[in-house]
Amino acid sequence: MNKARESVHGMWSSRWVFIIAAIGSAVGLGNIWKFPYITGEYGGGAFVLVYLLCIAMVGIPIMMAEILVGRRGRASPINAMRYVAKEEGASRAWCLVGFSGVLAGFLILSYYSVIAGWALAYVFQAIGGGLNDVSPERAGELFDDLVGSPGQLLFWHTVFMIMTIAVVARGVRDGLERAVTILMPALFVMLFVMVGYAYLEGDFARGVHFMFDVDFSKLFQVCSGPADAQDCRVSSEPLLVAMGHAFFTLSLGMGAIMAYGAYVPDRASITGATIAIAGADTLVALLAGLAIFPIVFASGLEPSSGPGLLFQSLPIAFGSMPGGYWFGTLFFVLLVFAAWSSSISLIEPAIAWLVESRGWRRATVATLAGVCAWLLGIASALSFNLWSGEEYQILGKTLFELKDFLTSNIMLPLGGLLIALFIAHGAGRHMALNELSISRQRLFNAWWFLIRYVSPIAIALVFLQVTGLLEALGVA
Ligand code: TRP
Q1: Is 8 inside a domain boundary?
Q2: Residue 429 has what pLDDT?
Q3: Domain residues for 23?
Q4: CA-CA distance, 438 to 80, in Å (whole number)?
Q5: Residue in 110, 251, 419 to alter for ligand 1 test, most ligand atoms within 8 A of Cβ
Q6: Can you tell me the mean pLDDT for 90-105?
Q7: Residues with Cβ within 6 A of ligand 1?
Q8: Nearest-CA residue for atom 8 of ligand 1
Q9: Is 4 inside any structural domain?
Q10: Domain count, the chain
Q11: CB of 432 within 8 A of CB of 68?
Q12: CA 320, 323, 327, 329 torsion: positive or negative?
């Protein structure tokens, strides 16, 4: 093992700090904004079950693989893959996985920042009293006004991108450690409060049934339209989206966790850290669902109303609960922080690579990369207003939808598949055994079986639902 190698970007001060930073990366808009609305769109229970299975059978093993390669390579994903491949006698072409990850990171950040901008806008709505006593109709109008305004979306997108770059420019560790240790626990508490409110005032039973009653036929159909007059067609899109989301929510498949893994101390347990990260992430998503769906049903909203679901439902709760002014403000502040600690990990692999290979200053590189992501993001912001029309759509999707679909459902699972193949068939068992240093042989064997067979086959199977894939793309 090459113990002499050190990351030029510094190290986490302890294993605990790594876990917190990785939770910061994993827990974000994916859990609180995206999980509830896609669960609503794809019909609830069966979707949630597949998502949970993908976390356990695909996400967790691949997360361990990413951390392992990162720590072994002690460099940005592109270089880490390159070094490890070289040492283990595998092809240098594996580093291409790193490049595709950098691209995916840019594409995701370019819409992530727009949605995080919505959350920022809601912080100021809440502070200004705009959420006091909102009715369901008013909540809908507020949201439509915001996304209908290119100026506002671009403004908040810009603010959020500057926030992201400011942290990345200083180095992930300095910027992040303290904020995340306080704010993540606060977010947990806040979500519990909201679930409590949903339990008392919302249609809790219906929310729980929606999220956990499994109806497998829903996995192979996509429906649109209002609940009483739905138009459904056969498609395996829900399966693809559930798996894609498992990658998205755990920040896997593009090197974010690998980049963070490069700064992990040598002897830290990778298995324990992974379980903690995936557990916290899943818990937050389920809590968000339990907070949102009871309110959705109690106020007569459609669970399938799309990306606005969170922003149209929770304000109704803040509008009527005691202390709603403060809870509302605090909730959106915490949501912005959760998004912030995620967005920096989307761009860290690119920054780390540029610093390593060009020797430029971090701040310079971060600014350059930020400007690129910001420019790309303009298209996402306009997707909700000026460019929402069909003439601006590609394959029936707005640019925002297209970027989300391509990255979450194709690029991330593909990246994950290649990372699994790299570990299991490129680098090989010896290096994994050495690096993981799991003392219990059985545990290692279980992981090895998952990463060698189960995860790649599961991903391949979902991809092979080609009909669904082509259909989803609007080709067939
Ligand atoms: N996981 C984050 C969320 O749930 C988003 C995110 C951060 C991400 N880094 C990533 C997604 C890397 C995919 C890949 O909000």
Answers
A1: no
A2: 86
A3: 15-473
A4: 21
A5: 251
A6: 93
A7: 25-26, 28-31, 108, 248-249, 251, 254, 256, 342, 345-346, 412
A8: 251
A9: no
A10: 1
A11: yes
A12: positive
